[in-house]
Amino acid sequence: MLKGLIGKKIGMTQIFDEQGVAYPVTIIEAGPCYVTQVRTTEKEGYSAVQLGFAEVHPKRLTGGQLGHLKVKEIPALRYLREFRAKEHGLNVGDKVTVDTAFTLGERVDVMGVSKGKGFAGVIKRHHFNGMNATHGTSDRERAPGSNGSGTTPGRVYKGARRAGHMGVDRVTTQNLKIVMLDVERNLLGINGAVPGPKGGLILIKESRKQ
To answer: What pLDDT was estimated at residue 2?
Structure first.
């Protein structure tokens, strides 16, 4: 079966085990997802399943998007994402839910888009140490300092760590444990924090570091 789902981050809470130890848990509304396309090695050169998530009014989609979903009378879906899978046993129009994709105690990788922090300096963005707060340093405590070279090459190399836009990057948190499954409400409880704000789009896959 396919080990993948699209979901929406609801927020964080905590749960307690039998010994009374509290664990931080992220609640994700995962699915239900519809299989919107199946890619095969013979036709596309690789094996994958395209899933759709979050039903919307058809007017929210373009004509091409609606035509893509009308093959098996799939409802209008806002998000389409692809998951690589060799043996999945799925066909276009099938529904994938939390209980069919994952089991309690399974390890997963969670992908999301990190929160935007705006324009940030090098201390916040790249964890620079900063300079001395005394011994002649008056207003440069949080400055990056020099990161260029001398005569050769006489410039700053591309990719140098400087101040700039922080966040809104695709981030993957690996090897998180599923500690809660609510099939009726399509909820997943994952031990630990996952990238992104509340309401952010989340992709859940089988862990690569089992």
So the answer is: 86
Give the separation between CA 100 and CA 102, rounded to whole angstroms: 6
Q: H or E element: which one contains 27? A: strand 22-30
Contacts of 49 (CB under 8 A, 6+ apart): 2, 4, 35, 37, 38, 39, 82, 83, 85, 88, 90
First to last CA, the chain: 17
The tens digit of pLDDT for each residue in 88-99 reads 888 898 999 998
Of 210, 21, 199, give the one whose Cα is nearest residue 112. 199
**Number of DSSP helices (H) and strands (E) in the chain, helices first:** 3, 12
CA dihedral 27, 100, 32, 77 (to 10 degrees): 120
**CA–CA separation, 200 and 11 (whole Å):** 10
Does residue 62 surpass a pLDDT of 90? yes
Cα–Cα distance for residue pair 66/71, rounded to 1 Å: 9
Q: Which domains are assigned to the chain?
A: 4-116+168-206 (2.40.30.10), 117-144+160-166 (no CATH)
Rounded CA-CA distance 155/59 in Å is 52
Q: Which residues of 195-209 are buried (b: 16+ CB within 10 A; e: fewer)?
A: bbeeebbbbbbbeee
pLDDT at 197: 95
